[in-house]
Amino acid sequence: MPDIHSASIRPARVSLSILATTDVHAHLLPFDYFTNKPDNSSNLSKLATLIKEIRATTQNTLLLDNGDFLQGTPITDLYETDTVPRGLENPAVTAMNHLQYDAAALGNHEFNLPIPLLGSVLSQASFPIICSNIHGISSEAKGVWENCTILERSMVDQLGNTHRIKIGLFGVMPPQVLLWDRSRVEGHLASDDIVIAATKAVSQLRKDGADIVIGLGHTGVSNAAPSPNMEHAGIPLAAVEGLDALVLGHSHLVFPGPQPEHPAIDQTAGTIHGTPTVMPGSAASHLGRIDVTLERSDIGWALVEHTTTAIPASRRACKGTPHLVPETDPDFLSILTPAHEWALSEIRKHVGTLRAPLHSYFGLLPEDPTVRFVAQAQLDFVSRHFENSDYAHLPVLSATAPQKCGARGGPTHYTDIPAGQVAMYHISDLQFFPNDISALLMTGAEIADWLEMSASQYCQIAPNQADQPLRNDHFAGYNCDTILGLTYQIDLTQPARYAPSGEVIAPEAQRIKGLSWRGEPLSATQSVILAVNNYRSGGGGYFPHVSPEKVILESKTKIRDILIDFLRQTDSDAKDTLPIWSFVPIAGASVTIDTSPKAVTLLHTAPHLRLEELGPTQDGFTRFRLDLSN
């Protein structure tokens, strides 16, 4: 016989679905503004459908964003120009207002905008913007965002009763942003360590009456030992006492999903240090969902059950698993039509002409044309800048890497610009990130070390073995620099000197051979000027010997603008064509590299590589063999 008194003594239980996006990077609509073509792979308009469906079937929901929502595609990047129509709000904020986000945390790429413009854009948001470890210290930056916030929401329990529940939220992000975007934020911002700031925020939120606390951590996961000012501090962050649930990001990965091995990570439970955690990819590839059950006792509400999922928004994101891919939300499309039409009018403007095509399908191999083009434009700009200065007598070199080279971006994530007329969208495709130009004063020894870091991108290769993988997938392709102005070789029989984190793992290793400037060995003591982007001069990529005192040029000039000016110069696409680097031959060795299937039709543009097609891979790439024996 049932207990007739059980209902009266049963603790109140509330089910809450925490929905989260991260690193959307302005992938708002089913259109690729870098190629000027429709693209329905993944975008926020598809997540809008998922959000609408979940809200329709779930009583208590919360929608949060974890940062890097303002930058990423021309529809928002162009918002910084002076051609924005009067009254047109930033499309990312328009989209988030329409979707009724409850709160958003800042990511590092929000600071790609000048502080005054950032303040203006964020003021358009109808939801709280938070960041707990980056603080405004100038009059323009103070008060632009909140340190943390408490949302008080009415929620219905499992018996139909309504309760007022206070939800505490804080946000944290890499403190390295003060270096990465120094030209825009110096004098405006101060930073704290992620974990220290989170600990303080959780304590304050609890004191202020928060029933539960959710962390928005714009930071990834690393199995390195905790250290001050970590960029990827997700593991120690999850251990902060008083934290109930956590959203991670920044690294563009998915959790639950493959992450560095660590005893605190439980893939099955979707937890880190026992804290329910989700990391929903990037470019609106996934919607993060943490379903929690809150139970009320005499001392307040406590999280007693949870499930964690990252819901794919495209077939590629599904990676072969059965899943119903959402359609785009027509209401969402309609609200962004004015911004979309304006963006199209801007990206289709012609800016110059190319005599030969530029593509990055072989971007991590010698003599990539996109790398050479950008490096030459940077070199010309920086050379002119210093031609009447105290540095005029020094050699000028230029370092850059392919910015779209597949890997985690997928088999379509490559630059492909045909010969002929060039439009604005081609320039954005070539310079995927809206970086500024910068320059460092370096020595020959430091340049050699820089190249060792770049060469660490590759696996160690053994003689007399076929089809060894060339790339270490733990390195990002955009951290594989070529330096124009030098000639050198890379000896892959040597171990990599550096780990992706910049840690020296083989100090005696020397992959860089024959490093020369104008046909002569580059002296270890020779001073040189190295043209780079501001991400690199701010420490991005963990390259050695980078420090603020080495920066001798810190301009707010966009490299995209430099490329347009360079393109308009006579024969700009046919300047220095001397080979820069090559692999040292390895007897009997061959390696494999995966790239876009489109590369098959462009093998004739890279005859020096002598690549052999091996066939498709399971994840949509095409595999090629590169013979290293001669």
Task: Explain the layout of strands and helices.
Elements: H1 6-9, E1 13-21, E2 31-32, E3 37-38, H2 44-57, E4 61-65, H3 74-77, H4 91-98, E5 103-105, H5 115-122, E6 129-130, E7 134-136, E8 148-156, E9 162-172, H6 177-180, H7 182-185, E10 189-191, H8 194-207, E11 212-217, H9 234-238, E12 245-248, E13 254-255, E14 265-266, E15 271-272, E16 275-280, E17 286-297, E18 300-312, H10 315-318, H11 330-335, H12 337-347, E19 350-354, E20 358-359, H13 369-386, E21 396-400, E22 416-417, E23 420-423, H14 424-430, E24 436-443, H15 444-455, E25 468-469, E26 482-484, E27 487-490, E28 512-517, E29 520-521, E30 527-533, H16 534-537, E31 551-558, H17 559-567, E32 581-583, E33 590-595, E34 612-616, E35 622-627
Parallel strand pairs: 1-4, 4-5, 5-6, 9-11, 11-12, 12-16, 21-30, 25-33, 27-32
Antiparallel strand pairs: 1-17, 2-3, 7-10, 8-9, 13-16, 14-15, 15-16, 17-18, 19-23, 20-22, 21-26, 24-30, 24-31, 27-28, 28-29, 33-35, 34-35
In summary, what is this structure?
This protein is 22% helix and 28% strand.
How is this structure best described in words?
It is globular, with a radius of gyration of 25 Å. It contains 17 helices and 35 strands. The strands form 9 sheets. Strands 8, 9, 11, 12, 13, 14, 15 and 16 form an 8-stranded mixed beta sheet that branches. It is an alpha/beta fold.
What share of the residues does DSSP label as strand, in percent?
25-35%
Give a count of the beta strands, DSSP E runs of length 2 or more.
35
Number of helices: 17
- Kindly state the mean pLDDT as a whole number? 93
Model regions low in confidence, pLDDT < 50 over at least 5 residues:
1-7, 317-323
Radius of gyration: 25 Å
Report the end-to-end length measured between terminal Cα atoms.
85 Å
Helix fraction, binned, reads 10-25%
Secondary structural class: alpha/beta
Any idea what the shape is?
Answer: globular
- Main sheet summary: 8 strands, mixed
